[in-house]
Amino acid sequence: MSRLFWIIIAIIGGGLILLVTSGDRGTVFGIDDSVFARTLYLGVWGIVLAASIIATRMPLGDIARNIAVWLFIILTLVAGYQYRYELQDVASRITAGIVPGSPISIEGGSAVRLDKRGDGHFGARAQVDGATVHFVVDTGATSTVLTAADAGRAGIDVATLSFRVPVSTANGIARAAATSVDSITLGPIERNGLAVLVAAPGALGQSLLGMNFLETLAGFEVRGDVMILRD
User: Fold this and answer.
1) Does residue 153 surpass a pLDDT of 90?
2) Which of 10, 55, 124, 226 is most buried (most C-beta within 10 Å)?
3) Which parts pass through the membrane (predicted)?
4) Would you say 199 and 174 are in contact if contact means Cβ atoms under 8 Å apart?
5) The pTM is what?
């Protein structure tokens, strides 16, 4: 082992001397300095790896199998990193198929896709102060409106609210109370300190994601049964 150590030191030392003495030429034996330095670095590690393999005295078949396994693991990790956004999209699509209204992250996480539900509305499964809320996206609603039940699960004390704001619902005019939430998160899109309305208990069947949220986006569009929200 001590002999191997001194051999490696000699190689590194010789390579460094050649790099230093190359001066302004920028080449060593006709090879660019940076390429020579990289080759020297990889060569030293190759010697160390080869010596370690030889020292184990394992059968060549076992060595080849272990190297193949590690190469497969490394290539899998590299491929997973390179295609991380595509894999996220696949995972989002699977989740959306299982849980209606789940946002699908697209375009590298800068946009969200929502699919139209069976009832013809676009649903959005979002987090309001950590609580899951199933919204209907309503471009006709000026404000985002929470049902009393959703507001309670998000930590809002509904009993202390004053329901004085008139809002239009499918069942006519209802009363709501003005308040705010710390955050609304829809996939990779998050908005903080958003003003919302809380409908009086029993006045609203489902929470509405209104224009005061949509207008904070870079844009949104509808393509048939798909809605795209861009941050």
Assistant:
1) yes
2) 124
3) 5-23, 35-55, 67-83
4) yes
5) 0.57
